[in-house]
Specification:
CATH topology of the largest domain: paralog of FGE (formylglycine-generating enzyme)
Oligomer: single chain
Largest sheet: 7 strands, mixed
Distance between the termini: 74 Å
């Protein structure tokens, strides 16, 4: 099929290329005269001939009427229109911003041409039902229209569709597909901005259901507590509704949680399109269910509540008739897709909205609700309970990363390559080169790998790799390179109203980013609000002649780093860029205004400011680690958020012990809040400067905090002999005899812990700590092809000193053999854990005794913690209670009452033994005697291990 492309040229050059690509993808041949002027005779006869001889004309009508040939009253575009009766017409959407100076016809007759253009558009509306496009949707609309046209064509002209006045849903679906059916791949040059059908770029992200969020108070056994995190193994989002229906009770609401850029919004769009294109049954929903995607950042609780919000969005965003939302609700079956719970405006508190949505779920019993949120905005009272099921977006694995990279490169190369076959070959070649780099040892480290497991960050990495031929290893470097590339291209572009060097543009945007971030949750602002931050910054870079409005308009249209969300509302391309630029601005101001570091330190622990602080520490020019941490250690949050302190140490480009030593030499007095901060300082110094603790030991030994004293007393660096195997520290466990299992009188006891029996063990060695991510990373580097742990790319679990999790029994055994050892037997584990004690925990019988020495569900913050932060037992072992469950070498089986020596458990079985409890376990599940098991091949997020060696190892 030959398809003639008709449009004005100057304002539609990029769009013609998009349409040409869509025609090729539809299996048709594009035809067109590229540029008609009076100097190219015979333009009119030639264009009429080509248009008439084509099978169909695709017309693009935007803001210009175009060239009118001498002696004609019509433009060349309208002449082409009249030359062909088979037409597919596309008119620019009326909501698209227009700048008359730039977008209208040039010359003295520009306003006469506007009148002719309006008349031409009315002709099109009478003759056809045109599609109304934006640059993001044009390619998808043309592709879909051509597919429908070629399928229905049988030699007769295509019948014009007639819209029934009662078929509101069909018309709504058309608009919804225009808005959400395509993703714009924004590149470092305008020609890389190509709209792509979501189905073509989509990779099947997976979800991990989290049932424990609502079952913590109903744990009936240690086995149940252990399996909660893995009860719903990974599933596709398209299966989520069917999965939720099978639970008891049924879950009619879903909460999709993920890190910034992890694909939450894309998942919602995918669900919406699945219903529209394939029917509700494709998701396991009842027939007649209608999906509605709603941005929660536009929800104003005071403006009429939820139903009024739905109605405003439908009529404003989707252009539906009045009362359409009311008629939808009366149908009873609506799939409400609510995007961005963390982006709610200040006028709508998250906890209040959470309770409102819970009520709505009861008021609309036949409807379904899906809410997306970043982790930072979903905590405490803002969590949705009742019949909402949490689904955690899993990081992309190697297969999904490879699929995404190939899709991305193919989209980019096809968008700019004149020959589709050559472009496709180049895309595969470049994608293969990129994936080969990602497979190198230095890019397999957990922190670097994290950059490639998030769709948005992976897109940025692809852009940097394509534009600059290199990959950064630090997140701050990645954002710096991406920002500079985007702004650098803007400064080098031709024909734009104003010119900026990349550094100048960034210095203007930095105060904008900090001003935006000053208000919790603010990611959008009106142009007039931004002027106060922009105008002084323009003056500072000697661009006072450029107005704030002109700067905003140009950077929106030519760069894309600051995006226009409506006619007068702006926001950064992604929150990551806002956070990075805000951190840059704080660094710049700190040289003359040291107070800015104190102000940021006061927000330590605030989720909204977490990434800003971490990015600040990752910046050089120079490092502000010491002055910033001097302010942080004075804040209560320093003692309350040990995981954030660990992240600061890990992300910092350089560290110094000075702020922590200064805190520890201060007399503790009776101030318990000061004790907590000093305890946090001891933990930091153990990692970065253990010699400093040795110097302070005589003073710290008299500290009123028992926990601090125990940590100082158990310093492994002061031990007479340190046993280290491949960098893994071991302690010697003496031979001895003990009673294995629990007495019938023990509180919380399970039958599997008996009968209690006497066991004698020979001397052996055992890892002082659980195996860490840092240690496991060295194992991966030396053993290419080994499976990465389940949580290797998850920032919550992949810090260097956190215990490795998500390894199956075989993985753990392979690591132990690499380290010259093995896993402990179940008897060895319990003997080492008890360290001579006969109480429920080695530290005592009460839950307070456990809380002092272990991370479990009441104090863990729902994540693992760096090893060694809690005191060691009498044998010098840390974290034997809680933090993570530990694999043992034995098969699981019933105890014998016989006296035993060095027992190894049954010779076969269904599962391997797990011991110790984890960060999500209740106190009863962390006792010394508690037992659980898993199949050897299970890879569950809360399971780790430690290494054992014989008493006299060979090396």
């Amino acid at each position: 099929m030959r398809v003639f492309i008709s449009s004005t040229y100057l304002d539609n050059a990029a769009r013609r290329k998009i349409v040409e690509d869509a025609i090729i993808r539809a299996g048709c041949t594009p035809v067109g005269m590229e540029r008609f002027t009076a100097s190219v005779p015979p333009a009119v006869p030639e264009c009429q001939r080509l248009a008439s001889q084509a099978d169909v004309l695709v017309g693009i009508v935007a803001h210009r009427y175009g060239w009118i040939p001498h002696g004609e009253s019509r433009s060349i575009t309208e002449i082409e229109y009249d030359a062909q009766r088979e037409r597919l017409m596309f008119v620019i959407h009326p909501d698209v911003d227009v700048n008359p100076t730039r977008d209208f016809d040039e010359g003295a007759d520009r306003w006469d041409k506007q009148k002719k253009l309006d008349a031409f558009k009315k002709r099109i509306q009478v003759d056809h039902k045109p599609g109304y496009f934006t640059d993001a949707t044009l390619g998808v609309m043309v592709l879909q229209a051509l597919k429908e046209w070629t399928e229905s064509r049988d030699g007769a002209p295509l019948a014009e569709p007639v819209e029934s006045p009662v078929d509101e849903v069909r018309r709504y679906y058309e608009v919804a597909q225009q808005l959400h059916g395509a993703i714009t791949l924004a590149g470092f040059e305008k020609r890389l901005e190509v709209p792509l059908d979501l189905d073509e770029l989509w990779v099947n992200l997976r979800a991990m259901p989290n049932l424990e969020a609502f079952d913590r108070g109903k744990v009936g056994s240690a086995e149940e507590a252990e399996t909660l995190a893995g009860r719903g193994s990974e599933l596709a989002f398209t299966e989520a509704f069917r999965f939720a229906e099978k639970l008891k009770p049924k879950r009619r609401g879903l909460v999709i949680l993920g890190n910034p850029g992890s694909g939450k919004t894309t998942v919602l769009k995918r669900l919406l399109l699945a219903v529209i294109r394939n029917g509700p049954g494709a998701l396991g929903l009842a027939e007649g269910t209608v999906p509605v995607l709603l941005p929660l950042r536009e929800f104003e609780h005071a403006a009429g509540g939820f139903e009024a919000f739905v109605d405003r969005t439908l009529t404003g965003r989707y252009k539906t008739p009045d009362n359409f939302g009311d008629r939808l609700r009366r149908r009873r079956r609506v799939l409400f897709l609510l995007d961005g719970c963390d982006e709610l405006p200040a006028s709508s508190p998250r906890d209040t909205v959470a309770r409102l949505l819970e009520r709505c779920l009861g008021e609309f019993p036949d409807s379904r609700f899906v809410v997306s949120s970043r982790y930072a905005g979903y905590a405490d009272d803002a969590r949705l309970g009742g019949v909402f099921l949490e689904l955690h977006i899993r990081p992309m694995d190697d297969l999904l990363v490879a699929q995404f990279v190939r899709n991305w490169y193919r989209a980019v190369e096809l968008s700019i390559g004149p020959d589709a076959a050559i472009a496709a070959e180049k895309a595969e070649t470049e994608a293969a080169k990129f994936l080969a780099i990602l497979g190198q040892d230095e890019y397999r480290a957990a922190k670097v790998r994290e950059l490639t497991r998030n769709p948005l960050l992976l897109t940025a990495v692809c852009l940097v790799h394509r534009a600059m031929g290199g990959l950064p290893k630090r997140r701050a470097t990645l954002l710096d390179m991406a920002t500079n590339c985007i702004l650098g291209n803007w400064g080098n572009a031709k024909g734009i109203p104003i010119r900026f060097e990349a550094g100048e543009a960034r210095r203007v945007l930095q105060p904008v980013a900090l001003w935006m971030h000053e208000k919790d949750g603010r990611v959008r602002a009106r142009a007039e609000e931004l002027e106060s931050a922009i105008e002084p910054a323009l003056a500072a870079v000697k661009k006072s002649d450029v107005g704030a409005a002109q700067f905003l308009e140009t950077i929106r249209d030519e760069s894309g780093l600051l995006t226009g969300w409506s006619d007068d509302t702006f926001g950064f391309l992604h929150l990551n860029f806002q956070e990075y630029l805000a951190a840059r601005e704080i660094l710049s101001r700190s040289f003359t205004e040291p107070r800015v570091l104190v102000d940021l330190a006061k927000r330590f622990g605030d989720p909204w400011w977490r990434e800003v602080g971490l990015l600040l520490l990752a910046l050089e020019d120079p490092s502000v680690f010491t002055p910033y941490l001097e302010a942080v250690v004075e804040q209560p949050g320093f003692g309350r958020y040990p995981d954030l302190v660990d992240a600061c140490i890990e992300d910092a480009v350089s560290v110094s012990p000075a702020p922590f030593v200064a805190l520890l030499v201060r007399p503790p007095g009776k101030d318990r809040e000061l004790w907590a901060r000093q305890l946090a300082a001891v933990r930091v110094l153990r990692k970065i400067a253990p010699a400093a603790i040795a110097e302070l030991a005589p003073t710290l030994a008299r500290h009123p905090s028992r926990e601090l004293c125990e940590i100082v007393a158990a310093r492994p660096e002061l031990a007479a002999v340190r046993l280290v195997f491949r960098g893994i520290e071991a302690v010697r466990i003496p031979a001895g005899t003990f009673l294995m299992g629990s007495p019938k009188s023990e509180m919380g006891r399970y039958d599997s812990e008996g009968p209690r029996h006497e066991v004698t063990l020979s001397e052996f060695l055992l890892g002082r700590y659980l195996v860490t991510n840092d240690e496991y990373g060295r194992f991966l580097k030396e053993n290419p092809g080994t499976n990465e742990p389940l949580e290797w790319a998850n920032r919550r679990f992949n810090q260097p000193r956190q215990p490795v999790v998500g390894v199956n029994w075989d993985d753990a055994q392979a690591f132990c053999e690499w380290a010259g050892g093995r896993m402990p037997t179940e008897a060895e584990w319990e003997y080492a854990c008890r360290a001579g004690s006969n109480t429920r925990f080695w530290s005592g019988d009460s839950e307070d005794d456990l809380a002092r020495v272990a991370w479990y569900y009441k104090n863990s913050g729902d994540t693992t913690h760096a090893v060694g932060e809690k005191p060691a037992n009498a044998f010098g072992l840390h974290d034997v209670h809680g933090n993570v469950w530990e694999w043992c070498i034995d098969w699981s089986g019933a105890y014998s009452s016989k006296v035993q020596k060095n027992p190894a458990g049954p010779g076969h079985g269904t599962g391997r033994v797990l011991r110790g409890g984890g960060f999500r376990s209740p106190a009863v599940g962390c006792r010394s005697a508690v037992r659980s098991w898993r199949r050897p091949g299970d890879r569950v997020g809360g399971i780790g291990f430690r290494v054992a060696w014989p008493a006299r190892p060979s090396s």
